[in-house]
Amino acid sequence: MTSNAVLSVRAASKTFGTRKALDGVSVSVGRGEMVALIGPSGSGKSTLLRAMTGLGRIDAGEGTVEAFGEVVQAHGRVSDRVRQVRARIGMIFQQFNLVGRLSLFTNVALGMLGRLGFWRGLFGLWPAAEKTGVMAALVRVGVADYAGQRAATLSGGQQQRAAIARALVQKAEVILADEPVASLDPVSARRVMELLCDLNRDEAISVVVCLHQVDYAMRYCPRVVALKAGKVVYDGPSRGLSHERLVDIYGPEIEEVFWEGGQK
């Protein structure tokens, strides 16, 4: 793993039945990078993200996954230290992964559990300084006015921004976002992508974002990694993604994929 890399996947494969979701994938993410993962449905994007945190186990063999210089998993076995590594990685999911009956404040405060422990979190025994940090994170993502509302009462865009605030409270050094804008309207989607860009630029948080909307990948992410049938078929600057290359990745239906959520 290179000195400035925070994530490194080498020769990773993952098989579901007879289908190879990942087929010898190798990719590294540098400190402070913002990288988009693109590719057709079933190409292995989400599987790769889950492998990076050990939430999805790769096949036995030569494959390895490292984060911050520590082994996450190797040869089909997850490391005993994976919890310590995950504490430094914030996960953002398509369906927000918030507890709908809890307030937005409490949902964001749950990002502290890795530092404060389960029982303090269960009873809401947040230290005063940590409460201030939660409110600062809510302000940072623009939803502080809704801190006392149940998460289920808020819009999808507001909930997704709260999920990002939770990663800030967690003090995540890397954010992995799995289709974070897929269920949002175009305005909310742009706000979420702009927020991820701001955090990448201002806080030097490395961001890997799995995207269905190719135009968002090219607009917001300097680097793109494209998967097709479980293999990396492109890894380079987003400006290098020509129409011909996109057709090779997605097929002639690329016009539908490229402009979904955007405008010509």
Walkthrough of the structure:
The protein contains eleven helices and eleven strands. The chain has a six-stranded mixed β-sheet with strand order 7-8-9-3-10-11, sandwiched between helices. A five-stranded antiparallel β-sheet has the order 2-1-4-5-6, covered by helices on one side. It is globular and about 50 Å long. It has helices at 45-53, 82-86, 104-109, 113-116, 118-122, 128-141, 156-169, 186-203, 214-220, 243-250, 254-259; strands spanning 5-16, 19-30, 34-38, 64-67, 70-74, 77-78, 89-92, 174-178, 206-210, 223-228, 231-237. The longest helix has 18 residues, at 186-203.
Brief digest:
This protein has 264 residues and is α/β, with parallel strands linked by helices. The protein has helices at 45-53, 82-86, 104-109, 113-116, 118-122, 128-141, 156-169, 186-203, 214-220, 243-250, 254-259, and strands at 5-16, 19-30, 34-38, 64-67, 70-74, 77-78, 89-92, 174-178, 206-210, 223-228, 231-237. It has a 6-stranded mixed sheet with strand order 7-8-9-3-10-11, sandwiched between helices. Strands 2-1-4-5-6 form a 5-stranded antiparallel sheet, covered by helices on one side.
